[in-house]
Amino acid sequence: MNEIDSLEMAVIDRNAEYWGVEPWELMEEAGRKVASEIESNRSVTLFCGKGNNGGDGFVAARYLFEKECDVKVVLVGKERSIGTDVARDNWLKLKNLDVTLIEGPRKEFYNDLEITSDVVVDAILGVGIKGRLREPVKSAVQAINRAKKSRIVSVDVPTGIDPDTGKGYGVKSDTTITFHKKKKGLNKAKLVDIGIPDKAETHVGPGDLFFLPKRKENSHKGENGRLMVIGGEEYTGAPALSALAALRSGCDLPVIYTKGNKDTISGFSPNLIVRDIKSFDSDKIYKSSSKFDAALIGPGLGRNSESMEEIRRLIDKLDIKKVLDADALHACKKTKTLLRKSIITPHSGEFESLFGKKPSKQLIKEFADQYNCIILKKGKNDIISNGDTIKINESGNAGMTVGGTGDILAGVVSSLVARKDYDFRLTAAASFIVGKAGDQIKKDLGVDGIIATDLLKEIPKVRAEQV
């Protein structure tokens, strides 16, 4: 991934913290790298915002002071409105130095300002802020742009410029020093490394939950996902677990379609909606499918030869998003083209049975590419690939090897993709959520004795706590 957008950068920042790199460490290194781009014994005016971009500027000011520069810092806002503790700490450190500090000046200050410094540093807004500039930021940007004789250096992204598109009115910088990866909208930027670990990108973490769908306050029933769950001919508990997991993941209407076991499955919970069908290839399913956003096929299905043939026809005909699990994968064994545009969730044995080879990261990626599908290979560490990118999930524990946890995972995956695009990222997020739910239960119960239904109440807690 050579270029990233602002959402992806936010994911990486959050995951870096999860994997042990504290925000203050990244800010310290970012500020140091900015200061290293400016020669010693220069006069420098830094315009700093109230967020972490401004914090990078505060750190840069400290290092520039050590380089015997004549340093002036303009805080575009009030000290009390500095948004993060780490940024505030770095602002307070400047008060102990012989640095000129100007806090929260009015619009008129910027209108009358004539900048004569050798260098101007723009550290007002970072990659997370988009849209039209408001006061006093707009006036600060105008003042910076009037400094025709100064070298203008922007931190991470020029204030006002959309990092994803490059559009917008903003600072006209001579140099932009951007961190970790180049941003899609910035053609001319100097890339510097600030110590973000590889795991922040290669592994799933809480940052990946930024991709999750958000429930609108004024939404109505069904607007937050409609999911078909198809299975339960042999194992009646499996589709019930999947549908309940979908509900716990925010899906409004998961509906189970099964052959002959409607009453048994309905008896697991009053929250379940169950429909009886005569065939998995029935007109009832096809006519209903237009009302749904996604279909989960396979939980508790069994391998009845007649049903396997029906499932193959069903997978081929359905034109909504499809998640294939358990015996639905067995149905595709001889016709793997049916996997196209699906999300599949095999464990190692199912993967080997389906593809004829033991799973590895490289093979998972190759088969995902070959069959144009997303593969979530379940195991001690889940491996997720869309054929282009691989993500590893390390959440979860040995207590989750009990039956039913795979049905829970399939339900969470299906729920999320029914509500929003970003199928690959949501599949990875689902893996993390379910694993974290298991880890929370382990803290309370230990590794022995976890059962699948324990996960259901923890799933929404994980989502609420991690985002």
Helix content: 25-40%
For the report, how would you describe the main beta sheet?
9 strands, mixed
Q: What is the helix tally?
A: 17
Mean pLDDT: 96
Q: Please list the strands of the largest sheet in the order they lie side by side.
A: 12-11-10-13-14-15-16-17-18
User: Given the C-alpha coordinates, what overall shape results?
Assistant: elongated
* Strand fraction: 15-25%
Quaternary structure annotation: single chain
CATH architecture descriptor of the largest domain: 3-Layer(aba) Sandwich
What is the CATH C level class of the largest domain, in words?
Alpha Beta
Radius of gyration: 27 Å
What does this structure look like?
- By secondary structure, the protein is α/β, with parallel strands linked by helices.
- It has two domains: 3-202, 3-Layer(aba) Sandwich (Rossmann fold); 207-466, Ribokinase (UDP-N-acetylmuramoyl-L-alanine:D-glutamate ligase, 3-Layer(aba) Sandwich).
- The chain is built from 17 helices and 18 strands.
- It has helices at residues 6-18, 23-36, 52-66, 85-94, 107-112, 137-145, 199-202, 237-248, 262-266, 283-289, 305-317, 327-331, 348-355, 361-370, 405-419, 423-445, 454-466, and strands spanning 3-4, 43-48, 70-75, 100-103, 119-123, 151-155, 175-179, 182-183, 190-192, 226-230, 253-258, 273-276, 294-297, 321-324, 342-344, 374-377, 382-385, 390-393.
- A nine-stranded mixed β-sheet has the order 12-11-10-13-14-15-16-17-18, sandwiched between helices. A seven-stranded parallel β-sheet has the order 4-3-2-5-6-7-9, sandwiched between helices. The chain has a two-stranded parallel ribbon with strand order 1-8.
- Helix 2 (23-36) packs across helix 3.
- The longest helix is centred in the C-terminal third of the chain and has 23 residues, at 423-445.
- The model has no long low-confidence stretch (mean pLDDT 96).
- Residues 204-466 form the YjeF C-terminal domain.
- Pfam families: Carb_kinase, YjeF_N.
- (6S)-NADPHX binds at residues 52-56, 126-132, 156, 238, 300, 347, 407.
- Its EC number is 4.2.1.136, 5.1.99.6.
